[in-house]
Amino acid sequence: MSLETITGQIRAKKFLAHLLKTRNLPHALLLSGMEGIGKGRLALELAKALNCLTPPDPGTGAIACGTCEACRKIDRRVHPDLLWVEKEGTSIKLARIKEVRERCRVRPFEGSFRVTVVQDAQALTEEAGNALLKILEEPPPRNVFILLALDAQMLLPTLVSRCCHVRCQPLDDQQVRDLVAERWNLSPSQAAQVARLSFGSLERARAWAEGDRVERCRQVVHRLLEVARGPVLDLFLDTAQWVKESEDLEQDLECIKFWVRENLMQCLGMTEETVFDDTDAHGGRLAEDPDMLLRMYEVVENAVQHLRAHANKQLVLEGVCLKIKEWVDGKGHRYSFPGWRQDLSL
User: Fold this and answer.
1) φ and ψ at residue 113, rounded to 5 degrees
2) pLDDT digits (tens, 9 = 90+) for 268-318
């Protein structure tokens, strides 16, 4: 099969194909980028290229036949020389890396190379990361390690330094639109909405396509504006209740980020319609100042990163709501307090 069967990732595919063609594939690769953009598919295709039993002619552009027994086993992730390391709960623990180390002590069972794929490598505990580092510093022969991570900065710097780093890019809206329309039988307008909500990730697109997530996004933004427009002292109680009720706070923040992005795109004249046009969540001050919208987007994006780093959920949400309240009310606005609180003597 060819790398061209993978949607997007033109630069990454070209680079990896060159490494395979020149036989300069390093013992450790780091594929970084958001989830749902094809990092896992790239890892599987590399594993097939290294272990294919009937390699295709180089002139065809294919890197593996895709039909031999080894390729079929790798596709199903049942090949004995393919180790797929995943999180157990919220992290990848030391015991799992010790298992990998023991497997690497022996030669590959069937294939030419043993390929170890560490999915969500940013979830490695410090002990597990250091154990993996020792393996990469003295790599056993005929072993290739492929680390998949959201961002290289979320890994130990020493671990990154031992890998050839390949950055994978989000898919463009047209690619996502075509794929979701075909896979989930969506109308052109529905597919366009899902593509904008996905931010270039097929995993996010799937989440939006399989449920009425657009309506949920509207509800999240409506709730945000209710909190931001209320008295500041009530904001802390409201955010505490929000955190308690939310099933997925990170997804709520992604909804807010998408709302800011939609406002920014309309403000810059890049789109005429948004999914918020028929709600109270669109318009007002937020659609007037591109610089302010960019700063707001950065605030929400930082909040998402803090949440992924296991920061306190309520503090993260409070920070976002307070900042948006400041922008909704206007810079320098004196926060409003309920009438009964204004009578309190200091």
Assistant:
1) -135, 150
2) 876 666 666 655 544 444 546 788 888 889 999 999 999 988 899 999 999
Which CA distances in Å does 150 have to 11, 31, 100, 131?
A: 18, 8, 22, 20
| d(C-alpha 49, C-alpha 66), whole Å | 9
Q: Which sign, positive or negative, has the C-alpha torsion 243, 247, 250, 253?
A: negative
Q: What span, in angstroms and rounded, lies between the C-alpha atoms of 122 and 313? A: 20
pLDDT, tens digit, for every residue of 110-126? 999 999 999 999 999 99
Q: Do 319 and 303 contact (CB within 8 A), yes or no? A: yes
Residue with tokens 């998949």: 148
The C-alpha angle 71, 72, 73, rounded to 5 degrees, equals 90
Please give the domain boundaries of the chain with CATH numbers for all domains: 3-167 (3.40.50.300), 212-329 (1.20.272)
- Tell me whether residue 148 is exposed, middle or buried, using C-beta atoms within 10 angstroms of its C-beta: 0 to 12, 13 to 18, 19 or more: buried
